[in-house]
Amino acid sequence: MIMDELRLAELKLRVEADDPAALFEYSNIIAETDPTGAEKFLLLSAQLGHPPALERAGDLHMASGNTAEAERCYRTCAKAGMLDCAVKLLAIKLKEPAEETAAVRELEELAVSGVTSAALALADYYSDNGNRKQAAYWRSTAK
User: Fold this and answer.
1) Which of 59, 65, 77, 84 is deepest in the core (most CB within 10 A)?
2) Cα–Cα distance for residue pair 74/88, rounded to 1 Å
3) Residue 2's pLDDT band (boundaries 50, 70, 90)?
4) Measured on CA atoms in the order 116, 67, 59, 53, is the torsion positive or negative?
């Protein structure tokens, strides 16, 4: 128990110093007891460029309908090498007719290389477009 208190005290010091990873960790710790505070720390961590916080912030923006801000967050994460963020960005592009074909192609490349979230995104895409055979195929490759 003392170790937990010591660890929390150390974490709070890092939070006060605006350490992006600490802000993200602290937001996760207080999420159940203080959702508003947790979101504040999450968004601060995202503003400071912490990729996991950027992904979660992107998810929050998508849920609130702010697709442009979600895209910005996902793009930054994807540049940091987070493939699931690249998939989320491509899933947004699937809804844009001018981007749809290229997005499908990129998702297929990611799925073939073993990115499960890409295979699942393709399965959803094909299912939404009534292509049950392709949906079943991509869902079967998601392992």
Assistant:
1) 77
2) 7
3) low
4) positive
pLDDT for position 1? 43
Structure tokens at 46: 């995202």
Farthest CA pair distance, the chain: 57
Q: Which positions ≥6 away from 43 have C-beta within 8 Å?
A: 53, 57
Question: Per-residue DSSP letters for the chain?
Answer: -HHHHHHHHHHHHHHHTT-HHHHHHHHHHHTTT-HHHHHHHHHHHHHTT-HHHHHHHHHHHHHTT-HHHHHHHHHHHHHTT-HHHHHHHHHHHTTSTTTHHHHHHHHHHHHHTT-HHHHHHHHHHHHHTT-HHHHHHHHHH--
What's the average model confidence in pLDDT over 114-124? 96
State the Cα–Cα distance between residues 15 and 24, nearest whole angstrom. 9
**pLDDT one-digit tens code per residue, 36-83:** 999 999 999 999 999 999 999 999 999 999 999 999 999 999 999 999
Q: Give the number of C-alpha atoms closer than 13 A to the C-alpha of residue 28, restricted to the C-beta side.
A: 11
Residue with tokens 């998939």: 87
